[in-house]
Design a protein that fits this description.
The complex is a heterotrimer of chains A (333), B (290) and C (250). By secondary structure, chain B is mainly alpha-helical. Chain B contains eleven helices and two strands; from the N terminus they run H-H-H-H-E-E-H-H-H-H-H-H-H. The longest helix of chain C is centred in the last third of the chain and has 16 residues. The chains are: A mainly alpha (333), B mainly alpha (290), C alpha/beta (250).
Chain lengths: 333, 290, 250
């Protein structure tokens, strides 16, 4: 007797569709918990964690933002191998604003976000017109070259970087600011990607000729996606400058490019929540594995390959599927 | 002094061209961007070293075996990883990048760093032209580069297999209808690209020592040459490597050695602004895809 | 240079590398006409359309639409001027349901402009367009993913995407190919309705019998050159056309 695997929506999923969700507490809980639990988690964890793990949470939020930025670009069809570019641009912008112009952090942050976003978008604009591979290649090269340039010309502090950057007013503001930004970005951009605007972006990735045929200027839309992603990355970088009170060449390091990709791929590409999930798994994991030093990156590399080949949908989609549907074997007639 | 700079600029260009050839070939034939390229380069060098020091193979054997080994590895990588994600350029990029990363960082972690990890020079002689000292290894590199480029050109223009490669590069679907097995060609192209990386490593590494960090550098240089010259075009590789090679060398001599990277970066940025598909690039935005 | 000329193609040339795809192509189109663009395989029909719609830049020559030159304009700009086309190889956005496919063109600035600045409920508008091209409302086929639709529906979807742009000139590239006689018969009324609305249409077709029933005129291409231009029956009588299609004169 031949069998096949059948997937059916759970009863509670069907019952909680549309207005019927309001019919009982159970249904509302079903809908709300996937959203509320992580939000509560992020908001309450800072209160129960000790100093060390609070820093880890901070890291999680920053890498989650970078992964979010990567995912938005990927959904529009651009694979960035150089998130460090945006991170570094934002970091230096904020650092210089504060160091050279005495700008207070709370002002430098938004300015650096926009400025870094613009610069990142402008640098990559020429390659947006070409095949996707060029984009990946250029994003890989440019941050690495920036490092060499800074090293050589010794601008912006050269190899020593700029130190003595002003920190944010208090540790709590630091933590809650980044968490708030992360949550706002997550839910905000998720909304955006699910709207018709996001539909156009995803369609561009799917079949850009068809989108052009619909009278839409695909390069303008790609440029917009680029600016959004670059700004998010820049924000993350600017933020870290004030946390470390220092900015230097390491902001363009490969680490900031690779971990976000691993986080998004492992967590679930194509859903911003997956990027956050991936970061929440990989960053603490990498802390725990700190003892093994460079081997971590080997693991990231392996994770990347294994996930992209075997489980391309990522953990988030897997969990989502299990949550909404159940499976059973049925006989084939 | 000037002549010396020119001579060394030629050597520099040869090195760049050798580094870029494999990557360019793989992409030109099958459209696969092999981001594990730099890792393959370094890997083959370490393999040679291990054959030499652990198994006491003669030098020439170590090099040959490691080239073959790298080619096999490339083919395996295609068969077991790339084949699964074929046709999704995003996934191909991520997968090869991940593999390259894992390989390079593994060597870094295992401590294969230091001056003892180096390969001996193949011909330990120097020639003196007037007041310029030129070592035979560099001449060897240049000879290999020229030979390879001429050979590749002849191969892709005058042999059946070579023409098949070009056919696939231009129009995969049509090539398929002619009975050309695109998966097999894909595997061969990745394998060949890795083999060329290994060959390049074999002649270039003796100039210095092996270090995993160089893997990223090689990838970067190959990418730079390909971006400036245009992916898929051997002519582009030649022109771009001469251009960048000379620019770097002249900057090094007349300005300062730390500015060479800036020159490469500037070259890339200028090309991107003026002709994004590269000097000889055949990417015609939408046109090529109708 | 009269106002009657809706579209004029002037001495178009296009070569790809060594291949001369289009040689000295000229023809005119009056508003409201239905022109058939026919010819043997490889005669350059799709290339001609690509040139008109901006996906390919001509080597020489000019294209004038409603009195203004559109030669060399970017494709999305040409669409915004009111020219819509379908593609011979139909490729929808597979991961999306059928009606979401139609939302993409509805999102374009042209539609927004025509609608007076606001988008409204795009989902409903999309469903309406699908119904117009034959997606039966009660069967909910409009909600199905594009990856499961049969060719007949995919062609209609492609047509809906073009109509949604509210174009004045529609170019249909082999709309009938791959469809059964019944399906073609059911699509023809949709085209006739478009004509009644005053739209100008160019149709590339191989199904000559069906095409000649509705076309006012045909332009026949062979090896990139125009070899006939006139009413269908008259064009088909020309020796050159017969030779091109059949290899010999009848």
């Amino acid at each position: 007797m031949e069998r096949r695997l059948e997937r059916i929506d759970r009863g509670i999923k069907v019952r909680s569709e549309d207005v019927f969700a309001l019919s009982s507490w159970r249904e509302m809980l079903y809908l709300l918990s996937p959203r509320v639990v992580p939000v509560l988690g992020f908001l309450l964890l800072p209160l129960v964690l000790d100093n060390y793990w609070q820093k880890v949470l901070l890291s999680v939020a920053v890498f989650a933002l970078l992964a979010l930025s990567w995912d938005i670009l990927a959904q529009a069809g651009m694979v960035s191998l150089g998130q460090a570019l945006f991170f570094g641009l934002g970091a230096y912008c904020s650092g210089i604003l504060n160091h050279a112009l005495g700008c207070p952090p709370l002002l430098a942050l938004p300015v650096a976000t926009v400025l870094g976003g613009l610069m990142g978008a402008v640098v990559l604009l020429p390659v947006v017109r070409l095949r996707g591979v060029y984009f990946s290649m250029v994003t890989l090269i440019i941050p690495l070259m920036f490092v060499r340039v800074i090293e050589a010309t010794k601008i912006f502090g050269g190899t020593e970087g700029l130190s003595g950057i002003a920190p944010l007013p208090s540790k709590w503001i630091e933590l809650y600011l980044i968490v708030a930004v992360l949550l706002a970005a997550l839910f905000g951009f998720r909304r955006m990607m699910n709207s018709d605007y996001g539909l156009v972006l995803k369609a561009i990735k799917d079949n850009d000729r068809s989108v052009t045929n619909a009278g839409i200027n695909i390069f303008w839309y790609k440029a917009q996606a680029l600016f959004i992603a670059a700004s998010i990355g820049a924000l993350a970088g600017a933020f870290m400058t004030h946390v470390y009170m220092f900015v230097g060449m390491p902001v363009f390091a490969l680490d900031y490019s690779i971990l976000p990709i691993a986080a998004a791929v492992v967590g679930g590409p194509g859903s911003l929540a997956g990027a956050v999930l991936g970061a929440s798994i990989l960053v603490p994991l990498s802390e725990i594995l700190r003892g093994i030093g460079g081997l971590r990156i080997v693991f990231y590399g392996c994770f990347l390959v294994v996930f992209i080949v075997v489980l391309p949908e990522g953990i988030f989609h897997y969990i989502q599927r299990k949550y909404h549907q159940f499976e059973r074997w049925v006989e084939v007639e | 002094m000037f002549l010396g700079t020119v001579v060394y600029a030629i050597f520099n260009s040869a090195i760049l061209a050798l580094m870029a050839l494999g990557f360019n070939l793989t992409f030109g034939i099958s459209g696969v961007a092999n981001f594990a390229y730099g890792a393959m380069y370094i890997l083959s060098a370490y393999l040679s070293w291990m054959f030499l020091h652990f198994l006491n193979f003669p030098y020439w054997l170590s090099v040959c075996v490691s080239i073959v080994f790298t080619m096999v590895l490339g083919a395996l990588m295609y068969r077991y990883v790339l084949l699964r994600v074929r046709g999704q350029p995003l996934s191909e990029v991520i997968a090869t990048f991940g593999i390259g990363l894992a390989i390079l960082e593994l060597f870094q972690y295992l401590g294969f760093v230091g001056y003892e990890y180096s390969l001996p020079v193949m011909i330990d002689k120097s020639i003196i032209f007037g007041d310029i000292v030129v070592d035979m290894q560099r001449i060897l590199i240049t000879a290999v580069a020229i030979f390879l480029m001429a050979g590749l050109w002849a191969f892709t223009h005058h042999t059946r297999i070579g023409l098949a490669f070009r056919g696939i590069a231009q129009d995969e679907r049509t090539a398929l209808t002619f009975g050309i097995d695109s998966d097999r060609i894909g595997m061969i192209s990745v394998s060949l690209g890795c083999g060329l990386a290994a060959l390049a490593a074999a002649v270039i590494i003796p100039l210095g020592s092996i270090s995993p960090g160089d893997g990223y550098d090689v990838l970067m240089k190959a990418l730079a040459v390909c971006i400036v010259g245009g992916l898929g075009s051997t002519g582009g590789v030649i022109v771009a490597s001469v251009f960048i090679g000379f620019a770097e060398r002249l900057t090094d001599t007349y300005i300062s050695s730390s500015w060479t990277m800036i020159v490469s970066l500037a070259a890339i940025l200028i090309v991107l602004m003026v002709k994004p598909s590269g000097l000889f690039g055949r990417q015609k935005e939408l046109e090529e895809r109708i | 240079m009269g106002t009657a000329t809706f579209l004029r193609v002037n001495s178009l040339f296009k070569n790809f590398g060594g291949i001369q795809a289009i040689t000295d192509l000229s023809f005119e189109l009056a508003q409201g006409e239905l022109l058939g663009l026919i010819g043997p395989n490889g005669s350059g029909k799709t290339t001609a359309v690509n040139l008109i719609t901006g996906f390919v830049k001509p080597s020489r020559g000019e294209i004038v639409y409603r009195g203004r030159s559109i030669t060399g304009l970017a494709p999305h700009k040409i669409v915004r001027l009111g020219i819509a086309r379908t593609f011979q190889m139909v490729r929808p956005f597979y991961q999306l349901p059928a009606y979401k496919n139609v939302i993409i063109p509805l999102y374009s600035p042209r539609v927004r402009q025509l609608a007076g600045g606001s988008y409204g409920d795009l989902d409903a508008v999309a469903l309406d367009y699908l119904e117009e091209v034959g997606f039966e409302r009660d069967s909910h086929v409009a909600y199905k993913s594009a990856s499961v639709l049969p060719q007949g529906y995919l062609k209609r979807l492609e047509l809906a995407k073009a109509i949604a742009l509210k174009p004045d000139l529609i170019i249909l590239d082999e709309l009938f190919s791959g469809l059964s006689l019944a399906e073609v018969a059911s699509i023809i009324p949709i085209i006739e309705k478009l004509r009644k609305e005053g739209k100008t249409i160019i149709m590339i077709e191989h199904r000559l019998k069906e095409l000649f029933r509705i076309a006012d005129r045909v332009v026949v291409l062979n090896y990139g050159r125009k070899i006939a231009d006139g009413p269908a029956q008259q064009a088909m009588q020309t020796k050159e056309v017969q030779k091109a299609y059949l290899g010999a004169e009848c």
